[in-house]
Amino acid sequence: MNINQEQLIIFKTVIESGSFSAAARKLGKVPSAVSMSIANLEIDLNLQLFLREGREPTATAQAMTLYEKTEQLLTEMNQWKQHAYALSHGLESSLNIVVVSELLHMQWIDYIAILEAEFPSLQINIFSAPQEDAQKMLLNGTAQLALMFEREQLESSEQFVELKLETLVPVANKDFILAQFPQVSFEQIQHSRQIVVASRDKSIKPELLYSKQYWRTDNHHSACALIMQNFGWGVLPLEMLNENPQLKKQLKILDLLDFTPKFEYFVDLVWSRESELGAAARFLIQYIRNQRKKV
C-alpha cells in the first residue's frame, strides 16, 4: 500500500464537491487524472470507494468512514513536513528552559506563548530550580536557556540579556516574633530562623542568607508555606505578595533597622556562548532584544 498526500487531497475533494469533474476544476486537473487517481487508490486499499452507476459517483459507506479521518491525516502530514523543514533550517528538536524558583510567579509563560506561536511543532520543556542549580543546568547543557537573577560574577561562558527588575522583600507571618517590632535590628535577624530558597547542593552557601539558624528549601512556594506557618522569616518576591491579597493579609514586610540589603535584582535570560543554539532559542533572544529597544 503506497498512498500519497495528493491522492488523499483528490479523494477528499471528490467527496466534498460531489463529482470527479467538479473536483478536477477545483484542483486544476483534467477529470481523467482525478478518475485515475481514485481508481489507483481503490486498488491500493482493495476497497470500492465510489459507485459509478449514475451520472455522478456516489461515495460508499467505507469511503465516508475514511473521509472522516482524511482531514486529520492531511493536517498531520502538513505538520510533519513543516517540522521537517524547520529542523532542516536549524530548529532544535526540543528546547529546555529552566526558571529560577523565585521567578515562577513572573509572567514567563508569555515568552513560551511567543515561541509556540512562531514554532508550533517545537517541543518545549520547562524546569524550575534554585539559582545555583539553574546555572549548573545551563553550563552542563541540560538547559539551553535560563530565566535567572543577575549574578555578581559571570561565568566566562555566560551570555545574557536583561528582562526586568525584580524586588524581593523580607517577610514574616504577622504573628511571628520579628513582626511585633516596628523595626528589626541585624542582631534580631541573625538570631531568628530564616527560611532560605537555595540550591540542593549543601556545599554551596545559600544566597540572601542572614540568619545563623536557617531551614533550606528549593522553591519559594514551599518557603512561603513555611513562613506562613510561623517557622521563620524569609525573603520573597514582592510581586508574589501583590498578586495574592491573602498573603498580604497574613505576612508583614519587615523594616530592617541596621542595614539595607540589596533586594532588587535584574532578571536575565541567560545562555551559554559555548553551546550552539537552535532557531527557537535565537528567535527568543532576538525578540527580547527588540523589546528592549522599544523601552
UniProtKB/TrEMBL annotation:
SUPFAM superfamilies to which the protein is assigned, alphabetical: Periplasmic binding protein-like II (SSF53850), Winged helix' DNA-binding domain (SSF46785)
Keywords noted in UniProt: DNA-binding, Transcription, Transcription regulation
Domain of life: Bacteria
InterPro entries to which the protein is assigned, alphabetical: LysR_HTH_N, LysR_subst-bd, WH-like_DNA-bd_sf, WH_DNA-bd_sf
GO molecular function annotations of the record: DNA-binding transcription factor activity; transcription cis-regulatory region binding
Domain HTH lysR-type: 1-60
Pfam families named among the record's database cross-references: HTH_1, LysR_substrate
PANTHER family (UniProt xref): HTH-TYPE TRANSCRIPTIONAL REGULATOR, LYSR FAMILY TRANSCRIPTIONAL REGULATOR
Homology family: Belongs to the LysR transcriptional regulatory family.
Protein name: LysR family transcriptional regulator
Record lineage: Bacteria, Pseudomonadati, Pseudomonadota, Gammaproteobacteria, Moraxellales
